Amino acid sequence: MKSLYKRQLSMMVSITLLSFTLLSASFMLLSYRYIITEKRGAMGHNAGYIASFTSSFFQQYGTIDSDFYRYYVASIALISDSHVIVANPDGEILVATDGTQFFGRGTQHVPTSVVESVLNEGSYAGMTTLGGFYTEKRYMAALPITAELGSTNVVRGMVLVSDEASGLAEMWSATATIFFFSAVVVLLISVVVSTITSARQARPLNEMAEAARKFGRGEFDVRVTGCDDHCDEICTLAESFNSMASSLQKVEAQRSEFIANVSHELKTPMTTIAGFAEGILDGTVPPERQRESLEIIVSETRRLSRLVRRMLDLSRLNALSEDNVTAQQQFDLTEVVSRVLISLEGKITGRDLDVDVQMPEDKLMVWGDPDSITQVCYNLVDNAAKFAAPGTALTIQITKKDGKAFTSISNLGATIPAGELPLLFDRFHKADYSRSMDREGVGLGLYIVKTILSNLKETITVTSEDGVTKFTFTLTLA
């Protein structure tokens, strides 16, 4: 597997080399064209000047076989740092000088291709050894020498001006040297930068990979560190990973707590049932107490049934998706509360409780799931009746405010300590003061209430002061 560091290093080195190659090629091409253009222009200008002077000299003196002419041409060659050749129309070299000496006169001829180009096209430009006249190729520019003969121009010869090509070679050599050293420096910088950046990027990724392996072994307390001093996409991923780890840790803790609570809740009634059943079977429980023992067995069996039913309700609620939850409908809240009070009438009257109902006489339409809200009201009223002091009253109040319907259910009984209030909606939680009183409860009623209202994006609060405990939940008015 190719690491992130190797991929980044390869990519950066490749981009650097490609960039320098393209830049150097472009620079050398442009430089070559620029130098060629400059040399061609300069030599063409010199050749034109010499051709014009030669034409005038020839017309005035009828010949160019003169020391004055030769030394004048030599001075031009010396000033322009070039070689000058003057030849007749047949290509025979008449004057050849580099400014300091003369050479080749009458022994060499200009190549036929150059002569034909000058005579037919009016000029010549290119790199040539001039048929072996020079040992190395030189830049050459040639123009014809014309003179007026009556009304026509007659070619009297040609002028060739040349310059060395070593200047471009030196420039190319210097460019290659600069390119090489620049490429090495940039390459070293690229390696260092790539090493630092890839190490910073790979560290949280490696930590996440190691943390994921530990998650597979059940270790959920691992976190990715080292992203506090900078913020980028990888650090955002690391933060999301840590958030996921916290959620997994919380879920694992809740799962462990849930299993422990379920085990505790199931163990007590099952132990009771097994104890009394074995007592009846082995004769430990006398016949006159067997009916009482059977009633306890039936009571604990029903408690187990309620626990399983509540757990199934809880599983159903947790399985609901948000799309299903948000598919709400309008219903009359007062009708739902009235039906719940009627269904719990026997329990309320059995505890000698009064009911104070304060709600609108007309319909109060709200948004929600009528079945779920019925369960919410049933659990809250049942809970209030269960823990209300005998002979007291239950108060049910519905008010409207800011587009919400506030439903409050309160009872008079023991005051719940302030530290217990936030825990009332946890699974299997029972206030300590109620454990001996509540033999029928399983600690899931209020958790189910909280889950239903949370799925509906509504809230529920609880207060307990001076023996008055009040639960208040909201619903959105239709």
Task: Provide structural commentary.
Helix 1 packs antiparallel against helix 4 (166-216), helix 6 (287-319) packs parallel to helix 11 (445-455) and helix 10 packs antiparallel against helix 11. Helices cover 56% and strands 18% of the residues. A hairpin with a 5-residue loop joins strand 1 and strand 2 (93-97). It starts with a helix and ends with a strand. The chain has helices at residues 4-61, 67-80, 112-121, 166-216, 233-282, 287-319, 322-326, 333-343, 345-350, 370-387, 445-455, and strands at 83-87, 93-97, 124-128, 138-149, 152-164, 329-332, 354-358, 365-368, 393-401, 404-412, 460-465, 468-476. The strands form three sheets. It has a five-stranded antiparallel β-sheet with strand order 2-1-5-4-3, with helices on both faces. Strands 7-9-10-12-11 form a five-stranded mixed β-sheet, with helices on one face. It is of the alpha+beta class and 478 residues long.
